[in-house]
Each structure stands twice: as structure tokens, then as C-alpha cells.
């Protein structure tokens, strides 16, 4: 909840089974209390995990309608538009579009949405800066918390390695926007509404920015109160599985060169950051409570086994042999 109103996350997923419970628990600990997850072409028990979660928490699982008209539209946009038709969405006070490899990090109070809102002096829209993390040298896929495994950012901010970073945005649901997209909503006359749109340091954006289309901002000075950690590659084996899965936004399968470019962009050695490594205490309690459900625990274990088997199979896939070699995955599993 935020200011006494339900806070809803909308996200697409494909083959994210082992990561769901950690991510759900983290976001519930932050104060989100509703989820809409739109899936497509999952093979790893993602859909079954989400179906079981529907019986335990306020979550709606939907199939992406693009699966029955694959030649039309964009997977991500279709998911967001479809979710907006639900009363579950319409009745929420706050909406946040984010992904399962993104973890909100609030630096004030107990790390909750309300703490952020109070420290910022209130807001109607907040755009949070992406802080990308690399593989931390982890090769093997592991059933262990993502936030604990990966603690090195992929930019060296201390050395002045500064470029604009992508944003993700939470907004009050009663605001009329021209479009609501993955990184930010857009309205060409937002500056005339009297609403307050801030960054993760509580600073109000300029009228030109709020009325424009920018999807990135400088990380300098924009993360004092909150940011989101983007674990874009996770381990080398997890990245292989991501390649096989494909880009949920545009491509059915990433080609080898594009995959290598992505890996090198997100796996550069940067600034160490273990501030979220221990997780939120409330998140650990929520995850344990979810895993106390026998069916959910079994489905999670099946998802982990699927990813382990998939990683091993991909090591021998001739289509991506160059990628396997580039990631040093010809070494024994470790």
C-alpha cells in the first residue's frame, strides 16, 4: 500500500521460474500488494508457479494475447495494454511497470514505498534510475538469491564512467496519460496538471522533461532516496538461458553477436555495491511463508531443475558455440 491505496506491479515473464518467489517477496516487502503477470511460451513451470500464487496472494496471471496473433504488435506493449483492462488494475491506486530482473532499492526508512513518499515530500509520479549489475564472476546457475550473488555494478561510477541510465516509473492511477509505456508514461501537457513528477532523489523534473519522451536520466544525483538494481545478465549460465529464451520485447531468439554485445555491455567490472545483498528482512519472511506451501515449493524445485538441465544442454548447442566459448563455458560446471 502507498498512502492507503493499493500499489500494483505489472510485468511480463517468460521462463523466469526460479526467480519469481524472491522477486515477489522483495516487492511485497517494499509495499507492493498487487501483481499482474502476463506470460508467453513458458516451459519451466513459470505459469504453474504464478497460478499457485494466485491462490495465496493478490496476483493475476494472464496469457499474453499476442500468442494468438503473433504477427501483430509488440509483446511488451500488448502485455501492458491487456493488463489495463482488468478491474484489478483499474482499482489500484498506484501502477509500476518493472521486470523480474529489477529490484527496487529504497535507501530511506525501512525501504518501503511509504518511506520514499514521505522522504520525498510526496509525489504523483516517480521515475527511478536503473543501476545495472554484472555477473560478479559467477558462472553456474544457482538457486540462491539474486541480490546476494551479484554485487558489482557494470559501470565504474567512482572512476567517472557515467552515461545516462534507463528509468522505470511508478505513477498514480488517476492521472490521464496519452500512453503508458514500459519505461514511463507520456503526456505532452503534463506540466499543466499540477501533479508532481520526481526522480529517485526527490527532485522535480523540468516541464520539458515531463512533457517529452526521454526514457533515461543521469545516475548522478538521481538515486539519493531510491533506485532500482537491474540484474540484466545474472550468471553466465543464466545468461545462456536468457539467450535461448529470446528478448521478450522484440526478438524470438537473440543472435550470437547481439548476445555478446549485450553481455559485454552489462558485464563490465564496475563499482561494488552490496547494499541489497542481505535482502529486506521482511522479504525473507514472506518468501519462507510462500515456500511453506507444498505445491509452490515443489513447483519452484521443478523450475530450478529445468534451468539446471537447460544450462547443461545449451553448453553443447552448436548454434551458440561461439557464445559458450566467449563466456568460458567450455570449462567444467562449477
Q: Main traits of this protein?
A:
single chain; 334 residues; alpha/beta; ten-stranded mixed sheet; two-stranded antiparallel sheet
Descriptive notes:
By secondary structure, the chain is an alpha/beta fold. It has one domain. The protein contains twelve helices and twelve strands. Helix 1 links the parallel strand 1 and strand 2.
SSE string, helices as H and strands as E:
EHEHEHHEEHEHEEEEHEEHHHHH
Tally the structural domains. Answer: 1
Low-confidence stretches: none
Percent strand: 15-25%
SSE class: alpha/beta
Q: Radius of gyration, Cα only, in angstroms?
A: 19 Å
- Main β-sheet: number of strands, strand sense, barrel status? 10 strands, mixed
Question: Mean pLDDT, as a whole number?
Answer: 93
Helical content class: 25-40%
Shape: globular
- Treating each run of at least 4 consecutive H or I residues as one helix, how many helices? 12
Termini, distance in Å?
A: 42 Å
Number of strands: 12
Q: What is the fold's blueprint, element by element?
A:
Blueprint (H helix, E strand, L loop, with lengths): L6 E7 L6 H11 L3 E6 L6 H9 L4 E5 L11 H9 L3 H4 L3 E4 L4 E5 L6 H7 L5 E9 L12 H4 L15 E8 L6 E2 L4 E2 L10 E3 L7 H4 L5 E2 L8 E6 L4 H10 L10 H11 L14 H11 L2 H22 L5 H6 L8
Parallel strand pairs: 1-2, 1-4, 2-3, 6-10, 6-12
Antiparallel strand pairs: 4-7, 5-12, 6-7, 7-11, 8-9
Helix pairs in contact: 1-10, 2-11, 8-11
Summarize the structure in short.
With 334 residues, the protein is of the alpha/beta class.
Amino acid at each position: 500500500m502507498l498512502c492507503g491505496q493499493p500499489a500494483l506491479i505489472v510485468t511480463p515473464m517468460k521462463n523466469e521460474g526460479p526467480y519469481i518467489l524472491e522477486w515477489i517477496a522483495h516487492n511485497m516487502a517494499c509495499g507492493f500488494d498487487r501483481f499482474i503477470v502476463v506470460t508467453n511460451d513458458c516451459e519451466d513451470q513459470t505459469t504453474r508457479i504464478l497460478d499457485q500464487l494466485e491462490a495465496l496472494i493478490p496476483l493475476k496471471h494472464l496469457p499474453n494475447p499476442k500468442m494468438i496473433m503473433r504477427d501483430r504488435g509488440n509483446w511488451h506493449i500488448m502485455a501492458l495494454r491487456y493488463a489495463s483492462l482488468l478491474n484489478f488494475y483499474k482499482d489500484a491506486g498506484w501502477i509500476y511497470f518493472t521486470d523480474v530482473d529489477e529490484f527496487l532499492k529504497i535507501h530511506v526508512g525501512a525501504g518501503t514505498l511509504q518511506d520514499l513518499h514521505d522522504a520525498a515530500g510526496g509525489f504523483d509520479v516517480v521515475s527511478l534510475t536503473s543501476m545495472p549489475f554484472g555477473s560478479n564472476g559467477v558462472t553456474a546457475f544457482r538457486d540462491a538469491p539474486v541480490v546476494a550473488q551479484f554485487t558489482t555494478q557494470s559501470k565504474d561510477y567512482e572512476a567517472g564512467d557515467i552515461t545516462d541510465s534507463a528509468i522505470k516509473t511508478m505513477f498514480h492511477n488517476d492521472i490521464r496519460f496519452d500512453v503508458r509505456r514500459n519505461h514511463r508514461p507520456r503526456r505532452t501537457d503534463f506540466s499543466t496538471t499540477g501533479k508532481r513528477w520526481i526522480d529517485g532523489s526527490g527532485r522535480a523534473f523540468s516541464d520539458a522533461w515531463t512533457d517529452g519522451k526521454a526514457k533515461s536520466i543521469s545516475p548522478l544525483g538521481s538515486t539519493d532516496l531510491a533506485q532500482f538494481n537491474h540484474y540484466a545478465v545474472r550468471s553466465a549460465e543464466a545468461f545462456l538461458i536468457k539467450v535461448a529464451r529470446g528478448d521478450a520485447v522484440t526478438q524470438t531468439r537473440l543472435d550470437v553477436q547481439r548476445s555478446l554485445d549485450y553481455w559485454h555491455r552489462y558485464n563490465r567490472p564496475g563499482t561494488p555495491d552490496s547494499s541489497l545483498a542481505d535482502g529486506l528482512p521482511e522479504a525473507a519472511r514472506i518468501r519462507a511463508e510462500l515456500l511453506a506451501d507444498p505445491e509452490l515449493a515443489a513447483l519452484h524445485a521443478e523450475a530450478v531443475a529445468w534451468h539446471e538441465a537447460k544450462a547443461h544442454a545449451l553448453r553443447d548447442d552448436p548454434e551458440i558455440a561461439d557464445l559458450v566459448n566467449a563466456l568460458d563455458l567450455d570449462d567444467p560446471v562449477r
